[in-house]
């Protein structure tokens, strides 16, 4: 199921703390960075914090700039982003500023917590997720029911840790403040967890006042049929590669990327690449990886179009080529239409051989774009 783009935002001291243990909140950022955060808030559909952050910081989570709020309204959006919190118990202070500032609010909780929240009269849409909380159903509900496409997560450390370890974060914006906390009892940004995503990709570094902003993106693919945030990155790249294909009236334009389990790009390719007028994208990419490379067994192939099950230009279709390399996970944006091969089912061939096939329809329009002349009408 689709879910929003999830952006984690936090500021830490040089020794990795979110706060100290004093009675007042430790201000890690300065005016320039507070304005940057305000700009980021103005660009999202919703802002999420955990119940612990509401209890500890009593935040308002507003877009403070009148100009930015006016721009949101001018674009047909609410003046303020939706405010979201999560609490299994539903036991939150009804007088907290979270409930009484800004626009709409939603609380995700358990079935039991929903009764508690309603009894307290919390000024929010209370959404029970069942006997236990789960991030995937929460994100799916935000996307499909509340229309949230871009979600900013501002804390706390437990929330950031869970989203990152579960492969649900698309971006981390981390501000490093020039001070030390030095208190082992102070809260840290990330706690214990199974961080299996490997190295993150550094997307940006810049000075903002007296702090440094670093932006990271995940690189490791998902596992099995469960997509990770990085799957969207790699599939978007495959769709971009499809735009580089030489034009054709007899074959689709497709892009493909092969990515190792640790997030290392092994190869990329696109249809009719180089001097071969009939090479397919997956074929072109896999040809650049050594056939005995042990990373292939746990790699993922990203293809803008479902790998072909039958073809006239080569003895082996791409679904078979993928299986022969040992790859057992494929992520695609678009099922192959009947334009050239009626009844093609590359996904069925792959799944029948034990491969996991993930369809991310959010990218379908991008995959179709360079093929409009073949599918219009």
* Secondary-structure content class: alpha/beta
- Total DSSP E strands: 14
Distance between the termini: 29 Å
* Overall 3D form: elongated
Helical proportion, percent range:
25-40%
- Biggest beta sheet summary: 9 strands, mixed
**H/I helix tally:** 13
Strand order of the largest sheet: 5-4-3-2-6-1-7-9-8
Mean pLDDT: 94
Order of helices and strands: EHEHHEHEHEHEHEEEHEEHEHEHEHH
Describe the structure.
By secondary structure, the protein is an alpha/beta fold. The chain has helices spanning 31-42, 51-57, 66-74, 97-100, 111-120, 135-144, 157-165, 229-242, 281-286, 318-325, 346-352, 364-368, 372-375; strands spanning 5-12, 46-50, 82-86, 105-109, 125-128, 150-153, 171-176, 201-208, 211-217, 255-259, 265-270, 300-303, 329-332, 356-359. The strands form 2 sheets. The chain has a 9-stranded mixed sheet. Strands 11-10-12-13-14 form a 5-stranded mixed sheet, with helices on both faces. The two termini are 29 Å apart. 43% of the residues are buried.
